[in-house]
Amino acid sequence: MQEFSRRSFLAGAGMTAAACAARPLFGMAAASGSPFKVSVITDEISQDFDHACSVASKEFGLGWVELRGMWKKSLHELSDSELGQVESILAKYDLRVTDMASPVFKTDWPGAPKRHPDKSQDFGSNETFKQQSELLAKYIDLAKRFKTNKVRCFDFWRLENVAPYRAGINAKLAEAAATCGKQGTLLVLENEFECNTATAREAADTLAGVPSPYFGMNWDPGNAVMRGELDAFPAGWNLLPKKRIFHCHVKSAMKDASGKMVWAPVGKGYVDWTAQFRALKQIGYHQAVSLETHWRGAGTPEASTRISFAGMKQALEASGTW
């Protein structure tokens, strides 16, 4: 893990931001050579969907984006007319969609003690448990509309002791995966630090408990680190069933001066993305690697995402995957 002072970091961040503002990070030709679908979650750049897509396409040189929210609404809250605008903007910038970054199952498990997670991590998860089936159905329809076969999900807000509820949660995930499978869609569980599957070790157990061919993983080593699994790569990674990794989120985390775990720009912190990208290539992974910055150290989502994307590009190049 790379440690650095706040003053030296801000100085470096300022130079990186200036460089990013002065010229595009890289061109379209470079992105086309990657074995991965290099992507970014658009609302990590801006809630202005047209602007976010412009940055992703024209400046980052991408052909893929991940959809979660735009115009201060979650994707499933948009009207049909607004969804039509999303389609038009994607076509305008020649962008395809990796998956639906849905908030399915980011809610309390019924009968378990209520938890009060960091609400900044909600990302549109306002529906109750009883509304989850309807929410999943919406995202399956949205996946078809945006020509992808993946719907991201979680496994409920984290409990201090999930053991009494784990079998029931696994059964619910299996049921949802079967629903997806009937519609030609895959259910992709993200290891989320505020949910019951947060680390690689927990993910390996959950995947073993839900053996459906329609159920796989959105691997997020940054989330695992945030939960305290500092060896998410390579030790945690080595425990995962590689053929069931369907998607990958790119971010990082580190300890601040007080010892608290905080988000970090890609290229800093505990996650060695060069090694992780190399490992993904070695297993024959050809799905998305999608930037989900979360770090806001540059002051705004867009400025922070630009710095993290520069770090992501450097790691892709160093790993021979750009």
From TrEMBL:
Region named Disordered: 106-125
Looking at the keywords, is Signal present?
A: yes
Question: What InterPro entries is this protein classified in?
Answer: IolE/XylAMocC-like, TAT_signal, Xyl_isomerase-like_sf, Xyl_isomerase-like_TIM-brl
Q: Which residues form a coiled coil?
A: none
- Alphabetized SUPFAM superfamilies for the sequence: Xylose isomerase-like
Signal peptide interval: 1-21
Residues annotated as domain Xylose isomerase-like TIM barrel: 57-310
List the keywords (alphabetical).
Signal
PANTHER family in the cross-refs: HYDROXYPYRUVATE ISOMERASE, INOSOSE DEHYDRATASE
- Under which name does UniProt file this protein? Xylose isomerase-like TIM barrel domain-containing protein
